[in-house]
Automatic annotation (TrEMBL):
Residues covered by the N-acetyltransferase domain: 16-191
CDD domains for the chain: NAT_SF (cd04301)
Classification via PROSITE patterns: GNAT
InterPro entries in alphabetical order: Acyl_CoA_acyltransferase, GNAT_dom, Ribosomal_N-acetyltransferase
Official protein name in the record: N-acetyltransferase
SUPFAM superfamilies: Acyl-CoA N-acyltransferases (Nat)
Superkingdom of the organism of origin: Bacteria
One Pfam entry name: Acetyltransf_3
Length: 213
């Protein structure tokens, strides 16, 4: 495959639909991005406005995909169509056939295993349909929830990038302050997926049915 951009696709799992962001997502995306946990562990500007969400959906995401750098997907519940998160692919290298995957889960959808299910389905699509050879994840040293997702989908921890991450802490006055910390680097290769899909299925958090179109 000689493609150097990701297609506009939809990925279905048993419980979720991953699809391109659209302008109907502006209100829930804005609410999700203003969540305390999202603000702490991402570089999303705070406060995050509806205008920022609209710009992301209509300008930034399409430009990143067109340039071949990445792909942003809304993660929605299959039954309710409610937005429950975002999967982001960034720093894509089509020569090496690698990309960096990250995930954000809305506060109203945490604890359901949605991040693992969405990340697993995306990885299966990347390795199967897009013929990528490496997916990389980076988690802040203290972000245990993100690390648990990486472990659940079968990632291997490769090492630590010291002082490479900026997290954020909100003081009593409500002002966010940058705090330097380490990144833990994880990788997922096609052969790593074989056991992890079965393992997630056993825990009831993933069904090894993935369909994309």
């Amino acid at each position: 495959m000689t493609s150097s951009t990701f297609p506009n696709i939809s990925i279905n799992t048993e419980r979720l639909v991953l699809r391109p962001l659209d302008t109907d997502d502006v209100p829930p995306l804005t609410e999700m991005m203003n969540d305390e946990q999202v603000a702490a562990w991402t570089d999303i500007p705070q406060p995050f406005t509806e205008q920022a969400a609209h710009t992301w959906i209509t300008e930034h995401a399409p430009a990143e995909r067109a340039a071949g750098r990445g792909l942003d997907l809304a993660v929605t519940e299959f039954l309710t169509q409610r937005l429950v998160g975002v999967i982001r692919l960034t720093r894509t290298n089509w020569h090496i056939r690698s990309t960096e995957l990250s995930y954000i889960v809305a506060p109203w959808a945490r604890g359901e295993g949605y991040a693992s299910e969405a990340a697993m389905a995306t990885a299966q699509w990347l390795f199967g349909d897009q013929k990528l050879e490496r997916v990389e994840l980076r988690t802040a040293a203290d972000n245990t929830a993100a690390q648990q997702v990486a472990q659940k989908i079968g990632c291997l921890s490769e090492g630590v990038l010291r002082n490479a991450c900026i997290a954020h802490v909100r003081g009593d006055d409500g002002v966010w302050t940058d705090v330097r910390t380490d990144f833990i680097v994880w990788s997922l290769l096609p052969e790593d997926l074989e056991g992890s899909a079965e393992q997630l299925a056993d825990t009831g958090q993933f069904t090894a049915f993935t369909d994309w179109s």
